[in-house]
Structures are given as structure tokens and as C-alpha cells.
Write the C-alpha cells for this entry.
Amino acid sequence: MKIAFVQIALAMVVIAISCKQHAIQENTAVAQLSTPLFPKGEKITNSNFTGDVWLNSLVNADSLNSIAVGSVTFAPGARTKWHSHPAGQIILALEGAGYYQEKGTAKRILRKGDIVKCPPNVSHWHGASIDSNFVQVAITGREKGETVWLEAVTDSVYRKP
Amino acid sequence: MKIAFVQIALAMVVIAISCKQHAIQENTAVAQLSTPLFPKGEKITNSNFTGDVWLNSLVNADSLNSIAVGSVTFAPGARTKWHSHPAGQIILALEGAGYYQEKGTAKRILRKGDIVKCPPNVSHWHGASIDSNFVQVAITGREKGETVWLEAVTDSVYRKP
């Protein structure tokens, strides 16, 4: 009977170890997969944004290639001011939950994989939702000039469903 | 003694169930995190590629916004032909391991988060590595015309370290 006890105890130890090892492997996989696509970059210190926003300038426009690409990370509640782009802008949503609104239309919720094609010279804003961060790639043609910055997005506009 | 046996058996069942539940939770997390950023799209059937390649056209260029954006998935060994872009191209590496080579230079290995800024009219190719798939976003200005397709990338060029 004692031998049976030892065998059972041994089996329990084996189950517990295999369970632990499995958990370690899975956690490693989760850590690898949840690595952000791009580093967060530098905190934006200019007055064109409300709240905490970080920019990683991935590609700068130059005389040969007029397209600029940047990864932007918005803390919950953070957003751009109203603004427009002379050549429009494309937004690819990477992580979290964000908002996008063009003047005169309802705001849209953006999640991973969503795409916005913002037309030239249309006033709009984008940013994180109230309780989640938001990471996006912004693709902007610079051949027709720089972004035109307008007024801040008020709390009441930001919070309007 | 029989009661002790039942208790031990019960404890083993509890450990096994809790281990299984943990594994299910972890697998769900892995599945969520490993969801591709964009769906794979349609298999490319034209002759500009070698091997199996899928395209998801995220944004088409139009008269207002000249930038096209697409997600391209290459199976292991698959690649473009040599080609060039009149307005250049930007590549963002999303997943897997890929290659990028400009004519006259050594090929470069691309991994998640790597960025290529390919100058206008420079002959180049890109694709998956030999033993891994490769997913990339291609950002292409269409204002100066369409891609110029050239000869296929031979196996010896593709495999050269």
C-alpha cells in the first residue's frame, strides 16, 4: 500500500511540473506576440494634441519620396486638435480602441486592422477612446504642404457618443 | 485507507482540470494576440511573382489621394520579380522573416517592425525567406505611374547569402 501511495504522489508531482512548464511556454509565446510592432517613440510636446501622445517617425518625406509614415500612440483620452491635410491621410489602426471624426459626421470607433482614408482638406480629429490607449500608423503625402492645425477638440465633443 | 485514496484521486482530478483550464485561457490569449493585423486577402494569379503570394488591397489610389496601401503575404520561398516604382515604395514588415534586395547590393533580412524606403526607379525585389512566411505592408505613390515589372529572381540569386 505504501508503494501505491508513493506512486500516486509521484504522478501528482509529474502532473504539476508538466502543467507549470506548459504555462511557462504559453507565457513566453504571449510575451513575444504582444510586443508592439514599432517602439513608442518620443512624447509629443507641441500644442497640437490634448493629453499624452507619442510619435515614432518611421519615414520622413524627402525630395524623392513625398510620403511620411509615423506610428502614433495616444494615452486614454488623448487626441489631436481638429486639423486637415492638403493631400489627405491614411490611418491604419494597430492596437487598442480609438476615435476618428470628420467635421459634421458622427465619430467612428477604430480597432486593430481598421483603416481610414481621410480626404484632402477635410477637418477631422483622431485619438484614443476614453478608457483605452490607441496606436495607429499615419501615412501622409507631403507634396502639397503641411498639416493645417485648428482648434482643440473640447471634452463635450470628445465625449459625445 | 480507502477514503485517503478517494481524496488523493479527487486532488489529482482537480489539478488536472485547473491545468487544462489554464491552458485553454492561455491558448485563447495566444489566438487573440496572433490574429493577423489584416486578413490575408486574395491569392495573386498574375505572373509578377514566384511562389504563393496573397494581396489585401487596403487603400486604392484615386484622383484625390495618390497613395496605395496593400498587405502582402508571401509563403516561404515566394518573392516578387525584379521591379521598380516611379515614385518609390515604403515597406513595413509585419510578421515572419523576409528578404529585400536592390540591384547591386546584398540582400537584407526583414523582420517585424523593420522598414524599407525604396527610392524611385531603383530595381529591387522582396519576398519571404526560405523557411518562413513574410507579411508586409506596401505603401506606394501612384502619382508618377505604375510599377515597372522586370525579370524573375532566379533561385541562385534568391538563395545567395
Remarks:
- Confidence is low (pLDDT under 50) at residues 24-33 of chain B.
- Residues 81 and 153 of chain B are 5 Å apart (CA to CA).
- Chain B touches chain A at residues 1, 8, 11-12, 15-16, 18-19, 22-23, 26-27, 29-30, 33-35, 37-39, 58-59, 64-67, 69, 87-88, 90, 92, 94, 112-113, 115, 117, 119-120, 137, 139, 141, 143 (CB under 8 Å).
- The two ends of chain B are 68 Å apart (CA to CA).
